[in-house]
Write a structure and sequence with these properties.
By secondary structure, the protein is of the alpha+beta class. The protein has 2 domains: about 1-145, Jelly Rolls; about 145-188, no CATH class. It is about 45% helix and about 20% strand. The chain has a 4-stranded antiparallel β-sheet. The protein has a 4-stranded antiparallel β-sheet with strand order 2-7-4-5. Strand 4 and strand 5 form a beta hairpin. Helix 2 packs antiparallel against helix 4. The longest helix is centred in the C-terminal third of the chain and has 25 residues, at about 120-145. The radius of gyration is 17 Å and the shape is globular. The termini are far apart. InterPro entries: cNMP-bd_dom (IPR000595), cNMP-bd_dom_sf (IPR018490), RmlC-like_jellyroll (IPR014710). Keywords: Kinase, Transferase. This is cAMP-binding domain of CRP or a regulatory subunit of cAMP-dependent protein kinases.
Length: about 190
């Protein structure tokens, strides 16, 4: 849990009172590899901090899911659009590895906002991080070639390549597994 406090204190200093209140609202959950954390069609009720593990965000499909996001230890994850609107999500959140999440539900987060001096700053920090990751990916899909997206992902998060199946990486960068194999052969 100290990872969470360290994350937030990059944004602003937390008083011990605010931290204890926030901490009292967190619930630890452990998930096995390939567990569905959120199923499409259900409302996202949690903002989660990943203590350990990797998750992917994917749109379910009959044959191959479309992976559009990854999150790993030290980051927040949520079907944030569903969380904010409290409407059903159109995508799954699924673990890629065994994963430990610290989760706060929607109602408790509202209490943190109302009852702590730092709550709104904490919420804004988590929201901004999720937004920046989403914007970065969208711009990359519009501006970069598939090879550039692969190289950028490899440069920024090389540890993911040891734990994430290549078919998920191919889907994430917007190509088929066969096209990813050709790119990997070409740059080797």
């Amino acid at each position: 849990m100290e990872q969470i406090r360290t994350y937030f204190e990059k944004i602003a200093k937390l008083s011990d009172t605010d931290w204890q209140f926030f901490l009292s609202k967190l619930k630890k959950q452990e998930f096995k590899k390939k567990a569905v954390v959120l199923k499409a069609g259900t409302v996202e009720n949690y903002l989660s901090f990943i203590e350990n593990g990797i998750v992917r965000l994917c749109i379910p499909a009959e044959f191959d899911d479309l992976t559009f996001g990854f999150a790993h230890a030290g980051a927040f994850v949520s079907a944030y659009d569903s969380f904010l609107t409290q409407t059903p999500s159109v995508y799954h959140i699924e673990t890629v590895t065994e994963t430990v999440l610290w989760r706060i539900n929607y109602a408790d987060l509202q209490l943190v906002y109302e009852n702590t001096a730092i709550g709104n700053t904490i919420g804004r920090g988590a929201a901004e991080a999720l937004f920046l990751e989403k914007s970065k990916r969208e711009l990359s899909l519009l501006n970069d070639t598939a090879e550039q997206r692969y190289l950028n992902l490899f440069a920024e998060k090389p540890h993911l390549f040891q734990q994430i199946p290549l078919k998920f990486i191919a889907s994430y960068i917007g190509i088929t597994p066969q096209a990813l194999s050709r790119i990997r052969r070409r740059i080797s």
